[in-house]
Amino acid sequence: MPEKKTFYITTPIYYPSDKLHIGHSYTTVAADAMARFKRLTGYEVMFLTGTDEHGQKIEKIARENKVTPKEYVDRIVAGIKELWKLLDISYDDFIRTTDKRHEAVVQKIFQKLYDQGDIYKSEYEGWYCTPCESFWTEHQLADGNCPDCGRPVERVREESYFFKLSKYQDRLIKYIEEHPEFIQPQSRQNEMLNNFLRPGLEDLCVSRTSFKWGIPVPFDGQHVIYVWLDALSNYISALGYLSEDDERIRKFWPADVHLVGKEIVRFHTIIWPIMLMALELPLPRQVFGHGWLILEGGKMSKSKGNVVDPVVLVDRYGLDAIRYFLLREVPFGADGVFSNEALINRINSDLANDLGNLVSRTVAMIDKYFGGEVPAPGEPTDLDKDLEALALATPGRVEGLMDQLLFSNALSEIWRLVGRTNKYIDETAPWVLAKTEEGKARLTTVLYHLAESLRFISVLISPFMTRTPVEIQRQLGIKDEVSWDSLKEFGRLKPGTRVCRGEVIFPRLDVAEELKALEHLTESKKDSDGAANGNGSGSGAAKEDGARSSESKQAGVQAAGKEAEGRESLPEITIDDFAKLDLRVARVIAAEKVEKADKLLKLTLDVGGQSRQVVSGIARHYEPQDLVGKNVVIIANLKPVKLRGILSEGMILAASDSSGKLEVVSVSGEIESGAKVN
Ligand code: MSP
Fold first, then answer.
1. For a pocket test of ligand 1, which of 264, 296, 301 has the largest count of ligand atoms closer than 8 A to its C-beta?
2. What is the pLDDT of residues 356-410, one digit of tens each?
3. Domains along the chain with CATH numbers
4. What separation in Å is there between the alpha carbon of 12 and the centre of ligand 1?
5. pLDDT tens per residue, range 142-158
6. How far does residue 35's CA lie from ligand 1's centre (Å)?
7. Euclidean distance between CA atoms 342 and 304, whole angstroms
8. Which residues lie across from 295 on neighbouring strands?
């Protein structure tokens, strides 16, 4: 017997949040598809997910809710498990950082690192971002705020334990250089090396004394262990590391892949591997930092009020449509925009038209022409062999793509087979064949090929969708022959199998109606979250501002200084005139130089969950990356114009003085994007 292959995959453990949105579901659905794929292809899989329950943030929310932290997390974790159930997440273990089995291991790890001199006591003075639970040095701050989330940081000064990251820095750089597959995609590897590792690591503060909700340092009860040290350990505590039953750690460690969102790659590729090096454990084979699912411009977040609720979507379109959309629409490494329109279009084109039709037509024709029994095929023609060849080649291609976590490409490879099979119907025209005796003889082969191709398709999609393959197999009467190995041969479907006509698997949606319904659902969500709508109407002041002349104005910058210089010559206005301006706080999501225009930057803004593009004449004053994360102020209802062929939908405010200095008007991260300025 060959030794069983193992595969260990993890998602991040989630912060207990009231509402996990479709963005969170994205990581977990991807991990689930991968786990299912590996099980299908013969691996013994360990798929771990869980919750990250300690820290100052939770302690504070629980206090606000007048419950103990444990009561608070218990309630939320139950909701998270419900969501994973709804999404058919086939995890093998769910670890909570409040589990005794986890807490004990974290304390042992801390003790071990302390005993061997990798953790030492000193005093920490610096900045702390509570929402991100991250420490920052003065020079890492962005405009005095957290460089990750842009929110204000607090000055902290505490007696703390430190972990000697610096000691391991060179070893880690060498490891990353020698293992290019360790951090993927490649761009994230460069970012880690160039932005963090090569400039030099400072030792990490790994304990806190200013709050209590954490795992106590075993030998110093005043301190709780830093949440990231606690959280990262989950990947080995769940396997029984340093416990009596360490069978799973021996079997599954090192992990094959940690799937993480791009903002937490840093923790997983610097702190985590150094912890493992210090513990003398091998490093995971890969940390894959995927992009964010963003909602037309901004990362979904509850505080922004732009979350898309997976429960609402699953309820309306069914689980498989949502799983398919998440995995197909967004190339896994990159950010992807979630839009209702894209969702409806995908459902209609790929699922209703391509796959759904193929199933109903095949089953209906077998029913009609052969009384519901799959006919025995005759000698295949070149056309049949062509379809067979594609069906036989697809599993290998899908496997190659899945090994690189290219979910979207794997699905498009499967849809190539779906498309080819649909084309085969057009090419063979079964309804014409059915008219003659000679044609009917050929029809047996055609319908057999359709049914057998659908068997291939149903097996191929089974890691991605959980209900549809079962329904296709039910309608086709397939009971066996659904293993990966059964795809090695075209012709395993037994002639004589009875098909069973059923419901249309993906009914076609009315695009306009659905968009209206979804908008309504999102709007009511926004209203209930109190998020401002930053989208100006384009009327009023914008129309009256027809004479926008200076280049800075054309370029979407309202330079307050310049206006001030000329104020005397401007006529007086009333408060009603001012009220025509829709001034809003906008968060800069991305910025880039406009080619061949040395003054212009193209900015992508998030205005209360809506995306805006503004071309701004500030390129001589700002490097694009310095603007990302800033909360600027825009005139949101300015009539859009094209500058150098690029659409500019508004103008950002900036002050400039007579010496030529210019500074964009910005507000602190405490004000939500979309907030009205007046
Ligand atoms: N608790 C930490 C992880 C600790 S792992 C040792 C954490 N939790 S989280 O709940 O904030 O995020 C969990 C995962 O969800 C992260 O990988 C994060 O990137 C992902 N996502 C959250 N919002 C997302 C999108 N809008 N799009 C894609 N992924 C998103 O971080």
1. 264
2. 999 999 999 999 999 999 999 999 999 999 999 999 999 999 999 999 999 999 9
3. 6-304 (3.40.50.620), 356-488 (1.10.730.10), 550-667 (2.40.50.140)
4. 7
5. 888 988 888 899 998 88
6. 19
7. 22
8. 298
